[in-house]
């Protein structure tokens, strides 16, 4: 398909450009000046980006080798002690496991739900603006507020969810949704999927609306069933947005914080801690900024590796499709 | 040249952006600084918000002080967000180097160790009841109580008095009676106790009163249980009986769903008769909240007694749970602000100040002249609380934790306890893990 | 990434609107509407819940957290603005959102254009550098940032929040714009430069207008992100500022008791502008996001 998409792609058009320009000679003065010009275009954003994102992150790497508590004016270098302590603690690996469940799980579920919603919306031609708005509405609520409300609704003793189950005669289904250590991570996964799907749905929808109607109609004339049309006409056209959406949801999933903080606080015990939460809890709640920084560096490495792998895989899939 | 021209435009663009950004910054500065503007003769009082009554009390006491004809300077009350983000709020405030003179303080050890707090002078502490504060290991007092929740006197049980009356139940005077009370309530088909572990910190509400007997045995002039653990004179395994008692209560007498229940929700559970008793760590605060929600609810308050019928209560000290008023080092360096802070605290602990605090709905701290204070007894259960203060069975104990890494350990201990209560790990495994964490954080 | 958000220009040509008005009702469409509406009711339950609770008092909510309101009046709404700094918080939220977006709309398309056109290995380098920003959680860089702003005297100013948002939005923005710019034919620019226009003029007069669809998509997604953000203003604004809407709401969540009636009310108020903005601009949003354009 013509969709060319990748996280780590060197922009393709540029090579085309330099090819055509390089016809005459090697890099001319004009070209060099152009490159400087382009650099100045990048500069304002680059300065802000370096100052706000890259430099503080590098400082965190430095802090990860110290016993800095976040308050005291001085700290000592402790070598790789922090890293050693982290990777030998079961608590950390539990957080990694939860992060993987929530990250990959939410990326999958959100994409499936969003695609279904987008397909539904695509078929609605009357009041489409209204329907798009209501589908997007849950995403308009901040994760903080939505979680605060859900925390009450899921209360074991007086929450709406259990009350409804009891009224419906489903006593056996009643659970302490946020307090049962066997299910709490899955409940979190469910709630996260509830609140994060809006943008994903709209990206799918806009992709669906750009699928040429003639192709679909032609397939229908040929006697293809609804599923066949989807599988062989629509789905391949969606390959690009699947990659974008999946990668974005994955990255979003790795750093989920507000929901954990509000809904379970990492509990009961340690069972629902994620890496982002672990970093926050140790680095800020427990005054171990050096240790927290080390965990943050590890999080970054995990995020990076998984994102690159997924992206490689998705791009391969895209070409096949 | 074309490129120079466009470069000029570019720089112009950047300049506009920069100007825009700085204007916004300045505007924000202007508005925000104006709010707390005070001249040389004012000192800021940073207090934790969230509780309307406490907000009203701070306003009342600050207003009353500012009206004094002979005040040293003006005090400006300044709220901070409270709750789980207290640490973050303090830390960011600290990073700005903009400390207020008087602070509604928690996590005190960290800030003492970092040299951010100034000792509270004797002219203030001499006004406060001797049991209501204690000195840090360097001999200085850094914290005095903000309310009558002296030490951990607020770690107790709020209960449905009407239910007790209707069923001829009485407040337990020994540990065995406490267990028997819960058995009786359970036999009547009611849930005896509601507790909360939806956040990490309330998990001490049931644990601390249970463990207090063991802690009290290690109480000494300076030190206590954790100091003995550090010195090898005690170990976490000494708490095994207490942990077993805790597990027994959780398994047999506690309302289901405690894992996800928030401290604030125990009011709901109590007033809806879902449980007859509820744990609290804020004593009077919880009684006040119940009263606000359901004024005709007859609430009572008692402490869990030990096997001999004593109420072992942690003295207000400088430790993980300590909370109170402190003066910042920055104010001390400033001089004038320090004088205002000291003068304000002297008023806070005077009979007049105590009366203002009582009138606003907060129970005033125990001062030497407490008998002259007009207590506000409108709230059901508050008389139970005052009676405790005079009870001969009340034994204050000490359990100093003057290590800044203690909060790290304690959070781990709390979470591990919840995991144990929740059957995620056995009592023995928990003890081993907690001991290892202690050795690493405190000894190491 | 933003899947070759290649030109929605060609999509525009399809007169979708005209088609819509004439289209007859189909059974399948009505079924879709019903399913969507049901799903919506489930998913939006918390919003309904908050709306109902905003008419109840503190004691009503505490005694029966799941109950229905007994009366409908705007007491809580009035109290919210009278007793708290909610108005100032709302203004702060508006300023942060608008100013951040205004600055981003200038520097981000330029940067993306520069990244795409600088050519050679530098393109790839800058692209990856910005994308890496997507993967660094804010928590990682929080403490160094607070220290830096304090040194600059910017701590607890709206400028600090704005700057953090600017840096944080760079990753996604570069991603979105770059894949879109890829679809912009370079010949148009070359033609413009032959006409003697400088790079900067070429960009603003020729390229930028073509980027409008993606700009609108970018504005909508980020407006919501900035509007709803909780953690960054929480950390960057101390009590000397009224905070943002979410921070103000968080301040009502207390250690001992929370002012639920005001929290729910604030939640509903914070939603109103988002809904209006989204409802008004969703069409542009769809256009801007039009991914995988039809080439040929």
From TrEMBL, chain B:
Residues 1-27 form the signal peptide. Residues 229-256 form a coiled coil. Keywords: Coiled coil, Signal. SUPFAM superfamilies: Periplasmic binding protein-like II. This is Extracellular solute-binding protein.
């Amino acid at each position: 398909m013509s969709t060319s998409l990748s996280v780590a792609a060197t922009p393709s058009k540029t090579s085309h450009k330099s090819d055509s320009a390089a016809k005459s000679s090697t890099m001319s003065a004009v070209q060099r000046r152009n490159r400087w010009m382009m650099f100045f275009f990048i500069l304002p954003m680059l300065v802000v980006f370096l100052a706000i994102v890259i430099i503080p992150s590098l400082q965190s790497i430095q802090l990860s080798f110290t016993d800095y508590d976040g308050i005291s004016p001085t700290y000592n270098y402790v070598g790789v002690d922090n890293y050693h302590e982290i990777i030998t603690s079961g608590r950390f690996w539990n957080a990694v496991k939860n992060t993987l469940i929530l990250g990959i799980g939410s990326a999958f579920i959100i994409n499936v739900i969003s695609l279904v919603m987008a397909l539904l919306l695509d078929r609605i031609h009357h009041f489409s603006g209204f329907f798009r708005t209501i589908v997007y509405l849950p995403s308009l609520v901040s994760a903080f507020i939505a979680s605060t409300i859900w925390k009450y609704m899921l209360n074991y003793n007086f929450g709406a969810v259990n009350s409804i189950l009891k009224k419906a005669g489903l006593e056996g289904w009643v659970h302490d949704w946020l307090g049962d250590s066997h299910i709490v991570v899955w409940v979190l996964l469910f709630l996260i999927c509830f609140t994060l799907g809006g943008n994903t749905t709209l990206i799918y929808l806009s992709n669906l609306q750009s699928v040429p109607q003639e192709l679909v109609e032609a397939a229908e004339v040929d006697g293809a069933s609804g599923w066949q049309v989807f599988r062989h006409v629509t789905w391949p056209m969606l390959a690009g947005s699947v990659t974008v959406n999946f990668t974005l949801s994955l990255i979003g999933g790795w750093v989920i914080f507000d929901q954990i903080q509000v809904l379970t606080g990492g509990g009961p015990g340690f069972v629902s801690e994620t890496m982002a939460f672990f970093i926050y809890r140790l680095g800020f709640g427990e005054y171990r900024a050096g240790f927290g920084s080390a965990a943050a560096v590890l999080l970054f490495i995990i995020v990076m590796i998984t994102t690159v792998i997924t992206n490689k895989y998705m791009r391969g899939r895209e070409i096949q499709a | 040249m074309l490129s120079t021209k466009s470069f000029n435009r570019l720089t112009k663009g950047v300049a506009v952006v920069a100007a825009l950004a700085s204007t916004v910054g300045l505007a924000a500065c202007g508005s925000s600084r104006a709010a707390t503007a005070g001249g040389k003769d004012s000192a800021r009082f940073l207090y934790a918000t969230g509780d309307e009554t406490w907000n009203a009390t701070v306003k009342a006491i600050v207003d009353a002080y500012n009206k004094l004809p002979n005040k040293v300077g003006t005090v400006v009350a300044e709220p901070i967000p409270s709750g789980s983000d207290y640490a973050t709020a303090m830390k960011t405030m600290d990073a700005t180097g903009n400390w207020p003179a008087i602070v509604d303080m928690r996590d005190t050890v960290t800030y003492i160790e970092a040299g951010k707090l100034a000792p509270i002078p004797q002219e203030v502490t001499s006004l406060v009841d001797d049991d209501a504060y204690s000195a840090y290991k360097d001999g200085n007092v850094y914290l005095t109580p903000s309310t009558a929740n002296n030490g951990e006197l607020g770690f107790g049980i709020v209960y449905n008095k009407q239910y007790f009356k209707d069923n001829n139940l009485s407040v337990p005077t020994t540990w065995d009676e406490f267990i028997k009370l819960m058995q009786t309530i359970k036999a009547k088909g009611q849930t005896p106790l509601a507790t909360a572990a939806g956040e990490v910190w309330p998990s001490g509400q049931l644990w601390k009163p249970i463990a207090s007997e063991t802690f009290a045995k290690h109480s000494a002039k300076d030190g206590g249980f954790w100091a003995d653990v550090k010195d090898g004179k005690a170990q976490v395994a000494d708490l095994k009986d207490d942990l077993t008692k805790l597990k027994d209560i959780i398994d047999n007498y506690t309302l289901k769903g405690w894992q996800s229940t928030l401290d604030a929700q125990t009011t709901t559970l109590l007033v809806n008769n879902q449980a007859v008793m509820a744990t609290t760590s804020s004593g009077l605060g919880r009684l006040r909240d119940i009263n606000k929600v359901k004024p005709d609810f007859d609430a009572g308050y008692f402490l869990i007694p030990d096997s001999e019928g004593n109420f072992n209560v942690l003295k207000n000290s400088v430790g993980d749970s300590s909370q109170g008023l402190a003066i910042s080092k920055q104010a001390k360096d400033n001089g004038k602000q320090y004088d205002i802070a000291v003068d304000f605290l002297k008023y806070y602990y005077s009979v007049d100040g105590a009366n203002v605090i009582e009138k606003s709905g907060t129970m005033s701290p125990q001062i030497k002249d407490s008998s002259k204070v007009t207590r506000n007894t409108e709230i059901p259960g508050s008389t139970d609380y005052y009676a405790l203060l005079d009870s001969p069975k009340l034994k204050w104990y000490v359990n100093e934790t003057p290590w800044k890494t203690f909060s790290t350990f304690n959070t781990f201990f709390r979470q591990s306890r919840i995991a144990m209560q929740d059957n995620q790990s056995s009592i023995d495994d928990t003890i081993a893990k907690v001991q290892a964490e202690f050795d690493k954080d405190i000894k190491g | 990434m933003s899947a070759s958000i290649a030109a929605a220009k060609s999509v525009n040509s399809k007169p979708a609107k005209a088609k819509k008005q004439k289209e007859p009702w189909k059974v399948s469409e009505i079924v879709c509407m019903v399913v969507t509406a049901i799903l919506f009711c489930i998913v939006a339950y918390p919003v309904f819940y908050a709306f109902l609770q905003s008419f109840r008092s503190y004691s009503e909510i505490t005694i029966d957290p799941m109950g229905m309101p007994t009366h409908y009046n705007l007491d809580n709404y009035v109290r919210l603005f009278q007793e708290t700094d909610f108005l100032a918080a709302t203004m702060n939220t508006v300023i942060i959102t608008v100013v951040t977006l205004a600055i981003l709309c200038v520097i981000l398309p330029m940067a993306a254009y520069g990244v795409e056109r600088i050519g050679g290995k530098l393109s790839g380098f800058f692209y990856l550098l910005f994308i890496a920003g997507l993967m660094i959680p804010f928590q990682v860089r929080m403490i160094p940032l607070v220290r830096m702003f304090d040194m600059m005297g910017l701590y607890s100013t709206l400028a600090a929040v704005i700057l953090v948002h600017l840096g944080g939005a760079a990753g996604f923005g570069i991603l979105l714009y770059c894949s879109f710019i890829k679809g912009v034919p370079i010949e148009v620019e070359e033609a413009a430069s032959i006409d003697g226009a400088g790079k900067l003029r070429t960009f603003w007069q020729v390229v930028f207008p073509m980027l409008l669809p993606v700009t609108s998509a970018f504005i909508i997604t980020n407006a919501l992100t900035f509007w709803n953000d909780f953690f960054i203003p929480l950390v960057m604004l101390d009590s000397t500022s009224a905070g943002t809407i979410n921070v103000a709401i968080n301040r009502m969540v207390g250690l001992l008791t929370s002012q639920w009636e005001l929290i729910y009310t604030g939640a509903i108020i914070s939603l109103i502008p988002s809904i209006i903005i989204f409802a008004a601009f969703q069409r542009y949003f769809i256009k801007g996001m039009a991914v995988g354009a039809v080439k040929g």
